[in-house]
Fold this sequence. Notes:
The protein is 39% helix and 27% strand. It is α+β, with helices and mostly antiparallel strands. It has a domain at 129-237: Immunoglobulins (Immunoglobulin-like).
Amino acid sequence: xxxxxxxxxxxxxxxxxxxxxxxxxxxxxxxxxxxxxxxxxxxxxxxxxxxxxxxxxxxxxxxxxxxxxxxxxxxxxxxxxxxxxxxxxxxxxxxxxxxxxxxxxxxxxxxxxxxxxxxxxxxxxxxxxxxxxxxxxxxxxxxxxxxxxxxxxxxxxxxxxxxxxxxxxxxxxxxxxxxxxxxxxxxxxxxxxxxxxxxxxxxxxxxxxxxxxxxxxxxxxxxxxxxxxxxxxxxxxxxx
Length: 240
């Protein structure tokens, strides 16, 4: 009789343990299922995962439903368009150089001398150079001319201060009389102007095609990175 009681008690304990284990397993499964909602299985194919990541990165971020454009993509696209336009202008200049033009009007010798001495030279003497000085930094526009399909402006910088000054010429701002930005390329000037009071010369090249309706432009250049010095020259006449 005692043996049967012990066996029954043992079986009861086993049933209770199995029931408790089953309940615990179901409860744990339910908690895990709720916690992992929305989690997908990792992509097994690395190549497919790379393609999806590229698509996701190319789609752009969004904030409050507004899609943000990548700054790098904008810069690259603008650079590509400017580069393509410059290449087209270069090809056109080469084609025009191969076909010399003769647009001169034959005038008497006396009239030609009067025009050359009293016209062009007098204009250049009265207009150039244009100068601006800030913090002992001198900025000059010494000349301008039409060269092929480009309008070329000769500029110079001179540092009379006690320390070298750095410039980032990509930030050279060109505007027409209406305040519209004009695209140009600066060449020949060093990135750092030493404090030796020496004049450093360079050029600003602007595609002539974008200056058809422009009479004058203004030029503004700031030091980098502090931008404590701003050199500005206005009313630079466009030569045609």
